[in-house]
Amino acid sequence: MLEIPVGVSNRHIHLCQEDFEALFGADSELSKAKDLGQPGQFAAEEKVDICGPKGTIKGVRVLGPFRGHSQVEISRTDAFKLGISPPVRDSGNLAGSAPITLNGPAGSLQLKEGVILAQRHIHMTPDLAKQYRLTDGQMVSVSCDGPRALTFHQVLVRISPAYSLEFHIDTDEANSAMLNSGDVVTLE
Amino acid sequence: MLEIPVGVSNRHIHLCQEDFEALFGADSELSKAKDLGQPGQFAAEEKVDICGPKGTIKGVRVLGPFRGHSQVEISRTDAFKLGISPPVRDSGNLAGSAPITLNGPAGSLQLKEGVILAQRHIHMTPDLAKQYRLTDGQMVSVSCDGPRALTFHQVLVRISPAYSLEFHIDTDEANSAMLNSGDVVTLE
Q: Among A135, B16, B115, B162, which is most buried by a count of CB atoms within 10 Å?
């Protein structure tokens, strides 16, 4: 039985360097505020406001390091507030995802696409994947107990030697199961 | 295989008549805006603001008819915004539930308890319950498909001749499964 620690992702944004400079100024640098669960990933000091046709959410945290394309990950609760309908997608799979306006201290920009609801996923090392006979890209199910016991299906397995074992869900998913970061779920 | 229509409950409040009069004035009457899925239940025109130690949510819909005790049903997303920790409870089971301040157009009042995260539940008639060998108060599991396929456990069965068949969940639960009102889930 494999127990996997939960990592709850609040809404956040990954930026490409060009978009970062448009929002924060050409001379700005991304400042690390806190390391995250996955090695090399960090929460930055910088925040942006995100604006949809029905509403704005202020102070959305930028994560680093820079990526090739800017990507906004929100909950479906957030999506209703903004008035957009982002698809459920794996990170980086942005074709046809939802548009959004970003406002930073030095400028604003409109992304034609880039907003997703993150596909729930497990980060796992190759050794552990081999032990449990799992392959990269496979869909599995995980369960948790408690007053809102749930079995999450359609959980994407992502395998890399650079990963720490973690089950990533957004705040809606965490709340529907009464889960917090650091709780554990069980692989079915 | 029993298919059950989903009813997504947005945050709402049930009031006892005394609390209604404190908030809206002694001469006020509860005005029906729209009938709800369960016979006799309705959304009222009236709304109140609910205030916790960390934030306020404006315009929370009052449901009718009046109840014996006031009860506020919110999502865990809302609870974090308000700064309170309501328990997962069946409707009416309010002992030790979370406190809240209510603000209406004619006055304000502090509930020492009354805020809950609603236990997900199925409304069902005795005939259907008999056919599926279910009893009032039993816990069952229901599943849905799609990009966020889920199995909800700890689903309370509530049986009455006055009920329409419906699976009630809050917005966090709906969003974690990409469900909307009128979608169907399957009894396991």
A: B115
